[in-house]
Amino acid sequence: MAHQSTPLIASQIIDGASEWAIMHGVAFRQADNTARHCPFSIAPMTMQRTVFEHLRSVTPLISKLINNVSEDHDFLQSSLGDVAKADPFFARLLALHQQAHGDIENRLTPARKPLLLMRTDFMEDRQHGAKVIEFNGIAAGMAPFGQRATEFHAFIKNQWPQVYQNWSEDSQSIPAENHGLEQLAYAISQAAKSVNATFTPTNPDTEKSQPTFLMVVQENEDNVYDQHLLEIALQQQGIRTLRRTFEQLSTQLSTGNNQRLLLEGVGAIDALYLRAGYQYVDYYSPEQDESVCCHTLSQTRLFIEQHHVAVNATFSQQLATSKTMQMLLTMMPAEGYARWGLDLEQAKLVKSVLAEMKPINKETIDWFNRQADKQQWVLKNQGEGGGHCVFGDDISEKLQQLTVEEYDAWALMQRLYPHEREVPTIAVRDSEQTLVDDLVSEVGLFTAYYDGKPATQFDGYAGYLIRSKPASENEGGIHSGKGILDSLALIN
After folding, report:
1. What is the DSSP letter of 354?
2. What string of DSSP letters covers 407-471?
3. What CATH architecture is 356-415?
4. What strands, in cross-sheet order, belong to the sheet with 45-48?
5. Which family, according to the similarity comment (predicted)?
6. What is the pTM of this model?
7. So what's the pLDDT on residue 206?
């Protein structure tokens, strides 16, 4: 619970901390082009080192599994058809996937190279330990904030050691290293350089092109500074960076020799990251008078995948990181993972962090209404980000409203009840401090895979993002909910 009282930390410290955040790009853009800092905690959360090491070892295996599932096109099409009937956006994604890869009888091989930049979100349940909340296939953008939050707490500890100690859960805890921004930039730059090298002329007299990275962004987005931090890190690795919306790309892309992707006025593109593309509105253009919503801009995305360019996220990756795929993998026996290259021990490791999930059908609904402890479950649809979850007693009401056709778009998942932080903390939002005495945290681990192989200097692991929120709040997004940016300190 958050409450305001007499300032507990001197205002000059809060001002200094807020200015550090803005100066280091930990901010959102306002409508008038000013910036406001991201909300943050004044000291890190703590976790047992063994728990974090377990997550650190299992997450690259999850990444390997999802990467291999995403390239198993027959499995995607045969296992996700029912969801497509229940969810129009999912139907569009699956149809685009089929256009790119052909149907099961006539398999096509699109030229794109898959670059999986993934964040796996965990919560440490009081009873069941750390469990996966969801897989995010379009999430690299937050890695810069994750690394910056770790640096921010190091700054507080150095500048105001007493303040840091006062609000730390454990004075012996050691900050967990976090290179999320650097490692994702490394993975993207390696992918861009690899594609670029494929086209590098062998004639020494011919000019070589600079590896070029394109970020597909939403128009007038306020969450842009983390994107710019990633671009700066890429520029430092010798990569040229560009930003375009789907609307702009719909008239600016063309095909060069050997399926090279060309951008008007720029030249060849080597790597492409979709910051947009996970909701219908990203493809909607008021200028296009379309009988089928969003056809033109989604065909632009398809056009990209038909070229020799490193792409995150591909249609396949978006389908493979969906809630339904999470449910199918959760319900599958560990032996089933052998299809995607995991041995039994690796499969059991992955299974150890998957929370129970149930499909929505008549039997599940009857069971839920008659027998289930409703507070132990959460109802989720296919949506990304906040606002797509139904909790507790509201679930029965929502299930009653669903038509049979809509069932497959939803799933029940074991609700996680994380540890509340043992020491109250100070949350800073808009340079105002608030005491929060029931803070809980979500831990997101970043991984990167390129063309089927780990793509970071840590065997696929990249870094982490901690978002904390009052336990009483259901929406914990930094951007859209009551969440605050946080970091991690480990205790033995």
Report:
1. B
2. GGG-EEEEPP-BPPPSS-EEEEETTEEEEESSEEEEEEEEEEEETTEE-STBTTEEEEEEEEEET
3. 2-Layer Sandwich (3.30)
4. 45-48, 488-491, 174-175
5. Belongs to the eukaryotic GSH synthase family.
6. 0.93
7. 61
> In 87-179, where does DSSP find H-type helix?
88-101, 143-159, 161-167
Q: Which two tokens stand for residue 455?
A: 């793509």
Q: Which pair of tokens denotes residue 486?
A: 């946080």
Q: For residue 301, which of 250, 254, 255, 252 has the smallest C-alpha distance?
A: 250
**Burial degree of 186 (CB within 10 A; 0-12, 13-18, 19+):** buried
Per the DSSP assignment, residues forming a β-bridge with 310 are 113, 271
Q: For residue 29, give every residue at least 6 positions away whose Cβ sits within 8 Å of its Cβ, in sequence order, or none.
A: 35, 221, 222, 223, 224, 225
Rounded to 5°, the CA angle 131-28-436 comes to 55
Tokens of 318: 């978006």
Q: Which two tokens stand for residue 26?
A: 């930990």
Residue type, 167: W
Cβ within 8 Å of residue 4, ≥6 positions away:
432, 434, 435
Q: How far apart are CA 227 and CA 243, in angstroms?
A: 10
Q: In what helix (H) or strand (E) does residue 14 lie, and over which residues does it extend? A: helix 11-23
Q: How far apart are CA 446 and CA 55, in angstroms?
A: 11
Low-confidence ranges of the chain (pLDDT < 70): 1-6, 139-141, 202-207, 280-281, 283-294, 384-387, 474-481
Structure tokens at 371: 């027998």
Tokens 């890429």 -> residue: 234
